[in-house]
Design a protein that fits this description.
Length: about 450
C-alpha cells in the first residue's frame, strides 16, 4: 500500500499554536481511495448526560422499528432522524438505593457510565468504578494527542455532601478514570479551545492568546506560513475541506470573543469562569463546537459532556422556565410542572440537534463525521418525580463507522442493563471488554 502524501498527525505551528488538521484524502494511502479504507476510518464515541430525568410520555416513541414518529421532545432531531436509534428498556440497576436510602441523583450520575453502585459517603473515601469512556481511552486514547475530553456546563465539585450523604463528587462527574478517581470536566469553551490548539507550552500559549486579543487576530494567523506550504501539496477537494475547517475555527473564535466582551460588561464578571456565556444555549453549543473540533481534528476520539449536575436546580428562562429544574422535576403529577420539564427537555434536545446536524455536515473520505461517530445521549433517571433508574431515556446517534443500523426505535425488555450497550459500543471501536459494571452480555438488534 502506497504511503500517504502527508501524515495523519500533521500540525500547523506558530507562536503558542499547534493546529491539527481534519482527515484529508492526502492522508490516506493512495490505493485506499479506491477501496473501503476501513482501517483508515476513525470511529468516535461521546456520552452526553442530562440531569433530573425526562418527561417520558413526550420522549418515548409509540411505534417500534423504522416506522416510528418522533415524539415532541425529539422533534428538533427531524433532520437527522435517519441517523438515530432510540433505545427503550435500558436500566442502571446499580443506581438504585440497594439499601442505601436516599441519594438517587448522586447514584444516577455516578453509575451512568460505570454501571457500579457508588459507596455512600460524603468524605474522601469515594468509590464507584471505571467508566466506559475511560475503558475506551486506555486503548483508543493512545493514538490521539488527548486520550479523552471531559466537558460540562457546571463546574465539577470534589467534596461536600450534595445528596443525602453522598459526596458532591458523585453528582457532578460521569467520567471515572478508576473506581476512586473521577475526571473533572472543563466548563470554559475558551480554555478548551486553547487546550486543543495550544502547542503544549503554557507560557507560549498565554503569550499567543494575549497577542491575538490585543491585535484582534485569529489563532490561524499564527500558522498561515505552514498553511500556505501545506495547501500547495493538496488537491482541490482537500483544499476546499481545509478552507471549511478554517472558516469554522474563525467563526468559533469570533463567538468566543463576543462572549468574553459581554462578560467584561457584566456588573460582576468574576462570578463566571473565563469565556463562559451567560446564555445556557450558547454555552452548550460552544461546548458542542469544541467536541466537533476535537473529533474533526482527531485530537481525541472519546468525549463526555455533562450538561448539568444531577439534582441541578438552575432555571431555564431560555426555554420559558424561570423556575428551578430540580424543583419542576418533582412535579407530583401536576400537568403544569410536567409541561415545564418537557420544555427543558426540548431545549436540551434542540442543542443536541445543533451538534448532530453539524457533525452531519462535515464530510470525510468515507461518510460524514456523524456517520463515523457513536453519540449516546440521555439521563440516569427516567421520571424525575419517581427517581426510577429503569427504562431510561437513551438515544444513540451516528452509524459507528458504518457498523450500526440506524433510523429505528428498539425496545428491549425492561431491566436490560445499560452496560450491555457499553460492551457493544466498545466492540465497535476495537476495545474488547468481557464485563463492565453489571453487564450480562451484548445488546442485540443494533448492528
Amino acid at each position: 500500500m502506497s504511503e500517504p502524501a502527508i501524515p495523519r498527525r500533521t500540525f500547523l505551528r506558530g507562536l503558542g499554536a499547534a493546529v491539527s488538521l481534519p482527515l484529508l484524502e492526502a492522508m490516506l494511502p493512495l490505493n485506499a481511495l479506491a477501496s473501503s479504507a476501513a482501517k483508515s476510518r476513525p470511529n468516535r464515541m461521546a456520552f452526553i448526560f442530562v440531569p433530573n430525568g425526562m418527561h417520558m410520555p413526550a420522549w418515548t416513541p409509540q411505534a417500534d422499528g423504522t416506522g416510528f414518529a418522533l415524539p415532541s421532545i425529539m422533534e428538533p432531531l427531524k433532520n437527522v432522524k435517519d441517523s438515530l436509534t432510540v433505545l427503550t428498556g435500558l436500566t442502571q440497576h446499580n443506581a438504585e438505593a440497594l439499601g442505601d436510602g436516599g441519594g438517587d441523583h448522586a447514584r444516577s450520575a455516578a453509575a451512568w457510565l460505570t454501571g457500579c453502585h457508588p459507596r455512600k459517603t460524603s468524605g474522601a473515601d469515594i468509590k464507584a468504578g471505571i467508566s466506559v469512556d475511560q475503558l475506551a481511552a486506555q486503548k483508543v486514547g493512545r493514538i490521539t494527542p488527548f486520550p479523552s475530553l471531559e466537558l460540562g456546563c457546571e463546574p465539577a465539585a470534589t467534596a461536600g455532601d450534595c445528596d443525602t450523604g453522598y459526596s458532591c463528587a458523585y453528582t457532578s462527574n460521569i467520567a471515572w478514570r478508576s473506581a476512586t478517581m473521577p475526571l473533572a470536566h472543563e466548563v470554559s469553551p475558551r480554555l478548551v479551545f486553547e487546550r486543543l490548539f495550544g502547542n503544549g507550552d503554557p507560557n507560549a500559549t498565554a503569550q499567543s492568546r494575549a497577542q491575538r486579543r490585543l491585535e484582534q487576530r485569529s489563532i490561524l494567523d499564527f500558522v498561515m506560513e505552514d498553511a500556505h506550504q501545506l495547501n500547495s501539496r493538496l488537491g482541490v477537494r482537500d483544499q476546499s475541506k481545509l478552507d471549511e475547517y478554517f472558516s469554522s475555527i474563525r467563526e468559533i473564535e469570533e463567538r468566543l470573543n463576543r462572549v468574553e466582551k459581554s462578560a467584561r460588561q457584566l456588573p460582576a464578571p468574576e462570578t463566571l469562569p473565563t469565556g463562559v456565556p451567560s446564555d445556557m444555549g450558547e454555552h452548550i453549543r460552544l461546548m458542542y463546537d469544541m467536541m466537533t473540533l476535537a473529533f474533526q481534528s482527531d485530537m481525541t476520539r472519546i468525549c463526555t459532556f455533562m450538561i448539568a449536575h444531577d439534582g441541578s436546580n438552575r432555571s431555564y428562562p431560555e426555554a420559558g422556565v424561570p423556575e428551578g429544574h430540580h424543583d419542576m422535576s418533582h412535579h407530583g403529577g401536576d400537568p403544569k410542572k410536567q409541561e415545564k420539564i418537557r420544555l427543558i427537555n426540548h431545549f436540551h434536545v434542540t442543542q443536541l440537534a445543533y451538534l448532530l446536524e453539524k457533525l452531519q455536515s462535515i464530510h470525510e473520505p468515507e461518510g460524514t463525521l456523524l456517520d463515523n461517530a457513536m453519540i449516546v445521549y440521555g439521563a440516569g433517571i427516567s421520571d424525575g418525580n419517581a427517581h426510577n433508574h429503569d427504562n431510561l431515556p437513551i438515544l444513540l446517534a451516528g452509524r459507528g463507522a458504518g457498523t450500526i443500523q440506524t433510523g429505528r426505535h428498539v425496545r428491549y425488555t425492561d431491566g436490560t442493563p445499560m452496560t450491555n450497550l457499553f460492551l457493544s459500543l466498545l466492540d465497535r471501536i476495537g476495545v474488547r471488554a468481557e464485563t463492565i459494571g453489571d453487564s450480562t452480555g451484548r445488546l442485540q438488534q443494533l448492528f
